[in-house]
Structures are given as structure tokens and as C-alpha cells.
Amino acid sequence: MNRYTLLAALWLSVTGYAQQTSFSFCFDGNKKDEKALQITKQQVFSEQTGYGYDLQSAPDLKANKPFYFSVAVPDGNYRVTVTLGSKKSAGVTTVRGESRRLFIENLPTRKGEFVQQSFVVNKRNTEIAPGEYVKIKVREKSKLNWDNKLTLEFNGDAPLLSALTIERVSDVPTIFLCGNSTVVDQDNEPWASWGQMITRFFDDQVCVANYAESGESANTFIAAGRLKKALSQMKAGDYLFMEFGHNDQKQKGPGKGAYYSFMTSLKTFIDEARARGAHPILVTPTQRRSFDERGKIKNTHEDYPEAMKWLAHKENVPLIDLNSMTRVLYEAMGVENSKKAFVHYPANTYPGQTKALEDNTHFNPYGAYQIAQCILQGIIDQKMPLQKYIRKDFKGYDPHHPDDIHLFHWNLSPFAEIEKPDGN
Question: What's this model's pTM, rounded to 2 decimal places?
């Protein structure tokens, strides 16, 4: 063994936890896997161990409060299998991953009952290649989506975690999401977007990788290296969803416009995806909550939705007309009730919120959940092969008849932010 091989071996022995791609943990002393690591309340995440409770203190089962658990892993897709329940008490558990992506929703377990469920989480950092990184914004630097850990949030009325396994998988298709603040994984309450809700409706044979970011246009998304990062992870059989328009329409000057620079950027997405054997999907922009005096939604996106339809036809690309679906959805809700799908909250609803929040572009969790179901219905209507990965409990969605908000139960994550996302 030469000295360089020896040095490499020593380096791997010291930092091996960061390269490990398979883990098994036990949280209640009821070890069914002999190789599982027993986790105690003192097991706090550190760079040395590479796993442990994170962001907050270890769970107090009597308090029924949310808790986080992180594992340091390299970029990739990971099948996460959770065993939920307890011998001692009944529970109701919600599981979210990374920047508040919803995977398991309000799952009840009786005392003594254990339920096992699996899902696939995409983990990434900003590195595209050695020395090359995505140009993330300052406010993104604290996002869980961009760090070197896979972080899981256990929430719900009474969250109970018995066991957890994590293993890297490379044989499932990945759905890459590209877009703006209506698509992005929002880390903090009360903001949410459809990209972090749609994960709840897919099984563990597919993975969603949400690369969207607030304030981005199609061309700035490319310029920041976000598309290049996604392409570095992309393989044949994957999907690339594109929803832009909100911020693109604000770009003025020579060469700008729906049928000019916007088309060139979207064509770049399409060509790059196809060059790798992936399937591009166009999504027209979600409507803003902008009603006229007759209670009808006004068109605020100029000719951008029609330009996307033109490009979809020209390039033979499937298109989900979210612009039309959300027009129906908001009009079905009505002028006042539609506020309940957006970030409309009186002052002092959240810590540090001294003024009312009245945002007509960005969704709250209920609104994002409705939009995600529009996308799912679009996948079904377009007869995309992706529909086979939709969970059986999704029974279809008609935007003329949105879900009853009183039946929507969302346990708040511990962190809130009053500053609105970039873009409108």
C-alpha cells in the first residue's frame, strides 16, 4: 500500500460516517434488528457521530411535541422506513423530510400497535462538481434542503417513533421540480408550496427532488446553476417538471417576453432533459388570488400561459394547465373563503408578527395541499406513466370541489418566518 492509498484509507476511516449510505436505528429499546443502533435522549447530532436528534431537544413523549432526527449522508435518493407506534400509548404521527416535505400524514396507532411505512427522500448539497457550486441566496443558507444531512421531522398530535432505517437507492425514477415560490419547499410556517405536499401522495417507488426556489425565473434558475445541479443527478427515465412565469413576466427590455427569452430558457430545460433520457413536463403558472368585481379571477400572467401551451405543442411535451385549474379552484372557493388557502393571518398569529399577513400569491399548507392535488390530477389526465406511483388513497381531485378546510389537520412545525418569500 503506497502512502497515498494509506492516507486515503485513513481519511475514510475518520470521515466514513459521511459516506455511509445505510443505517438502522432503534428508539424504544425494542430492537428487532440486531445491527440497529440504540438511540437515547442524549444522542444529539454531531459531526463526529453523523446522526442524532437535531434542531431541538430529544422528544418528551408526555409533551407530544415535534422532534427532528438527522443523518449525514452523501447526495442521492434514500428509502426511509419508519416504524411508528408504542407499547405504552396510542399516537398520531406525521412525518416530514428535509425542508418540510410531507410524507406521512396523521397516521394513527393504537396502544401496542406498530405500523411500518416507507418513502423515498432526495438529499442534496450545493456542490455540482469539485470547485463548482449552486449560487444559492443568503436566505437559503439555512435551508435543510442544502446541507449535508438528511433530516426528518416527526410531528403530529402524539408522534411516536419506534424504529428507523435509511438506505440509498438508485433504481427509482426521480421527479425533478423546477420553479419559483409557488413550487419550492418552504422551511417555515405559515408558508407552503405544492412541491412539498405532492410527496405525500407518491409511493416508495419514486422520488421527488424539489429544486425550485423563491423569486426565480426560468433564466435565473439556469444562471444560478440550479438546472446544472439537477442535471448532474439526472438519469434516463427521470422527469423534469417546469413551472415558471410569475417572475419571468416582470423582465422587460430587448429580447424579453413570453415568446422570446422565456421560450429560449424553457427549450433549454427540455433539450437538456431529453439529452439524458428524461421526460420534460411543462406546468402553467398558478393563478394569483386576484378577483374582479364579478368574483372572477383576473388574468395576471399576460401571455405566458399561452406561450407555454404553444411550446408544449411544438415540442410534443406533456403540459399540466395549472393556470386553468387554479382559476376554477379559487372561483369555487369564492372571494373570501379563498383567503384560507393563502397566507392571510391577523397580527400576532405567529411569533413576532406585529402586522397582518395578506399575501395573494403564496399558499399556506391547506392551499398548497389543494394545488398539489391539481398536479396529481393533471398527471392522471395526461395519462403519464408516473400515475402508477400515486398512492391508492388518492381518489382524484376536482378543483370545482376543494377539500373542506375544516377536515384538513396540519400540525405546525416549530419554526415560523414573517418575511414573505421572494417573488410574487
Answer: 0.93
